[in-house]
Write a structure and sequence with these properties.
Length: 131
């Protein structure tokens, strides 16, 4: 079975951690992930400049390791990222800003990437909110 998984929840929330654990189980069960799509406050999972207290789980690093180890397609909604002041190298240059906060394995792209992934999947799962 092929899954597209959208993460709307910011890091350090139960929903973000559940999304990560669910994604890990999808692959452990020999299913495929077509795309991970980080949207709304879920884009903060991709931010490399967050500093997490030592006694808390660093969800960003967990996501990053999972994505890199499994060579997954991880897309951050460009509109949601720009609205929150989060940029990759291309957008940093375009807007003449000094800081890049989104780096590989994540890539910025539009909602068309989410739509395309949903069309190529058997299941579309979303994780939202902080519950």
């Amino acid at each position: 079975m092929k899954f597209t998984i959208a993460i709307y929840a910011p890091p350090q929330t139960p929903a973000s951690r559940r999304a990560l654990r669910f994604s890990q189980e999808v692959l452990a069960s020999k299913h495929d992930i077509v795309r991970l799509f980080f949207y709304h406050d879920g884009i903060y999972n991709a931010i490399n400049s967050l500093v997490i207290p030592q006694d808390e789980l660093d969800t960003h690093k967990e996501w990053q390791s999972f994505i890199e180890e499994n060579k997954l397609d991880a897309v951050v909604c460009i509109a949601a990222a720009l609205r929150r002041g989060q940029l990759d190298a291309t957008e940093t240059k375009r807007y003449k800003k000094v800081a890049t906060s989104i780096t590989p394995p994540w890539q910025l792209a539009g909602l068309g990437q989410l739509h395309e992934a949903i069309q190529d999947s058997d299941r579309f799962i979303t994780f939202a909110g902080d519950a």
